[in-house]
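Entry:
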Amino acid sequence: MKLAQRVINLAESATLAVSSQAAKLRAEGVDVIGFGAGEPDFDTPDHIKQAAISAIQEGQTKYPKPASGLPATRKAICAKFLRQNALSYKTDEVMVTSGGKMAIYLLTHAVLDPGDEVVIPKPYWVSYPEIVKLAGGVPVFPVGPTDNDYKLSPDILADSITDRTRMVILNSPSNPSGVTYHPDELKALATVLQDRDLVVISDEIYDQLLYHGQETISYAAINEKTYAQTVTLNAASKTYSMTGWRLGYAGGPAEIIKAMKKLQTQSTSGAATFNQVALATALNEDQSAVDTMRRAFEQRGQHMFDRLSSYTGVQCARPTGAFYCFPDVSGTYSKLDVSGSIEFSSKLLDQAGVAVVPGIAFGMDEHVRFSFATSMENIDEGLNRFEKFVSV
């Protein structure tokens, strides 16, 4: 049977594939330490779960009305954006989506025409290029200098923009690197972008997971010009350990949000109603569980960084957000007789029982991604195996 060319050309999510492979091996009795998952190992806080249970018991199980999000949930999103991001969105400038990935999907399809270029800095989250290509866009991949943890300078960003550039994607804190742009760095990038006719996606899904006193700012909050050209994306997944609930949200110019809403009426019809009640509870109520997770991730991340940085042939940026380390392991390729990150990761899994995500999935074949969203016991056991593997 003939398949559509867009699906044939589509790359599977490498992060989901690694997690699935690790789960399969465990089911077969293989002892695997998994560093592939991009999800917190904490449970969803009880008061959030109870909100969904109560909503179901009260009969809130019908289609969400409107499809763009329950009024109370959109109001909670506006309050979150104002309280934590200094962004004054109105309820018609925000929407709820079935996961953060769907927000990006809707946005690219609402804005891009075939041939439009999208600047996606490397390293990038695995789904950005594929979603852009599905919308007919053409990814452009600038990369910053190694000594600045690959963060873009204004000059590098400017050199990547052409008269066909329609969109720029910024992700801070970063998946996969855990690196975060300082406010001054984002303001410098804004001098390049703010007077251009393009849309900025500011993916801030890890905005509440910051470490070591790291400062940041929402790109849209820099000034009136950045506010007018930016769609700010977030989700419940990372902050509230709600990956399986499939709840994302977006805020931005009303015209763009309206277009995204229209697309949503012809696709998912919106996120589950009772889940939206839980999202409003998560955003409005007790945030202590978030800080508990954040402090645990900060400790784990520093520990993983310290250990990875001590190995010969391995170089790693210190994570200041999210829950990933993205070490350059290419210094070990020769002695391990591997040619790139896929072969490295495969050998590591086969010989040491450690699952990581190949860096080529993020645009950088010299690297692999470790998630520290797992227990300290797992981190140490996995790194003990990794250390032995790279020290042959």
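The first helix runs from residue 5 to 8.
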